[in-house]
Design a protein that fits this description.
Elements (H helix, E strand, L loop, with lengths): L3 H11 L3 H7 L18 H18 L7 E5 L5 H9 L4 E6 L2 H10 L7 E6 L12 E7 L8 H11 E14 L4 H4 L2 H11 L8 H10 L2 E8 L1 H4 L2 H13 L6 H12 L3 E10 L2
Parallel strand pairs: 1-2, 1-4, 2-3, 4-5
Antiparallel strand pairs: 5-7, 6-7
Helix pairs in contact: 2-3, 3-4, 11-12
The structure holds S-adenosylmethionine (SAM).
The site of S-adenosylmethionine has 25 residues, from helix 4 and strand 2.
Length: about 280
C-alpha cells in the first residue's frame, strides 16, 4: 500500500533530521495536549503530546500487568514501547503491513527483562494469529487506512479472548459531514500525502459495527479539542523542511477548522468482546 507520508518521513530520518526524529521517531500520530493553549510547538512538546495520546488509548483498553496485547498498525512501535515501559509480565505484539516500519520498530524497541516484545509483518484485516490469544487489541490512528473496518473488527474479535477489549482512536465525522469525507474532493486533498484514508465512520456507524461484530461499546471519548496544536505543528514542520508552506496547506487548515467546529471529532473508542 502507498503511504507517501512514511516515504517522506523515512527520507528525512535517513538524512539525520533530528527535529523530525524527536517528534515522529517513536509515535506517528496526532498529539494530545491537556492544555492546548500551552502547546509550544517544539519537537519535544509534540513528542510528549504524542505519548500522551497513546496512553489515553491504552487506558481505554483497561490493561493490567500480565496481559497479551496486540497493537495493530503499530508504526515505529511507539505504543508497544509505551506499554513495555509502563507494565510488567506483558506479551506485546506489534503488527504492521509495511516491512520498513517493522524493521525500524525492531531496532528501536527492546523488551524489558520482565516483558516479551515482537513485531510481525501482516495485514490487520487478515491477522497472522491464532484465535482467542489476546487480552486486548489496540489500533492507534490507523483504522482509516485498513481495507475494511468490518473485516478488522471481525479479525479483532476472532483473536481476542472472551471479555477482551478492542481500543482505537479515529477521526469520526458528524453524520452531515460523511458525504464530504467520502467524496473525491476529500480524497484529492488527503491521498497525495496520506495515501488511502477512509474517514467515513460516524459514531452511530461505529455503534452499529460494534453490535454487528459481537462487541459492546465501553468507552466513547471525543478529544478533538486536545489535538488542535497538531495542525500548526504540521505546518511548522513543512516550513522547516521546505522553506515554504504550500504543501498540503489547504488540507491542514481545512482539517483544523472541521476539528475546531467539532464537525470532525477525534474519538477514543473501546469495545468489549461479548462472551
Ligand atoms: C498514522 S500511522 C499510525 C502508526 C502507529 N499506530 C502510531 O500511532 O504511531 C498508520 C499506520 O497504519 C499502518 N497500516 C496501514 N494499513 C495497514 C494494514 N492493512 N494492516 C496493518 N497496518 C496497516 C501503516 O503502515 C502505519 O504504520
Amino acid at each position: 500500500m502507498r503511504l507517501p507520508y512514511f516515504d517522506l518521513l523515512f527520507e528525512s530520518l535517513d538524512k539525520g533530521n533530528v527535529a523530525l526524529d524527536a517528534a515522529f521517531g517513536r509515535h506517528v500520530h496526532w498529539g494530545y495536549w491537556e492544555r492546548p493553549e500551552r502547546a509550544d510547538l517544539s519537537p519535544e512538546d509534540f513528542a510528549r503530546a504524542a505519548e500522551a495520546l497513546s496512553q489515553r488509548v491504552w487506558r481505554a483498553a483497561l490493561l493490567k500487568d500480565g496481559m497479551k496485547v496486540l497493537d495493530a498498525g503499530c508504526g515505529f512501535g511507539g505504543t508497544v514501547a509505551s506499554l513495555n515501559e509502563n507494565f510488567q509480565n506483558m506479551d506485546l505484539v506489534g503488527l504492521n503491513i509495511d516491512p520498513r516500519q517493522i524493521t525500524r520498530a525492531r531496532s528501536k524497541v527492546t523488551a524489558r527483562a520482565c516483558n516479551r516484545v515482537q513485531f510481525v509483518e501482516g495485514d490487520a484485516c487478515r491477522m497472522p494469529f491464532e484465535d482467542v490469544g489476546f487480552d486486548a487489541v489496540l489500533a492507534v490512528e490507523c483504522i482509516f487506512h485498513f481495507p475494511d473496518r468490518g473485516e478488522f473488527f471481525s479479525e479483532a474479535r476472532r483473536v481476542l479472548k472472551p471479555g477482551g477489549v478492542l481500543a482505537i482512536c479515529d477521526f469520526v465525522p458528524k453524520g452531515f459531514l460523511r458525504p464530504f469525507s467520502a467524496s473525491k474532493a476529500s480524497r484529492r486533498m488527503l491521498d497525495p500525502l496520506f495515501g488511502s484514508c477512509k474517514m467515513t465512520h460516524s459514531l452511530s456507524d461505529y455503534r452499529r459495527l460494534a453490535a454487528d461484530s459481537g462487541f459492546v461499546s465501553i468507552w466513547e471519548e471525543d478529544i478533538a479539542r486536545h489535538t488542535i496544536p497538531t495542525y500548526p505543528y504540521l505546518r511548522k514542520i513543512q516550513r522547516d523542511l521546505t522553506g515554504k508552506e504550500d504543501w498540503n496547506k489547504f488540507g491542514t487548515y481545512a482539517a483544523e477548522w472541521v476539528s475546531r467546529l467539532n464537525w470532525m471529532r477525534y474519538m477514543i473508542l473501546a469495545f468489549q468482546k461479548l462472551d
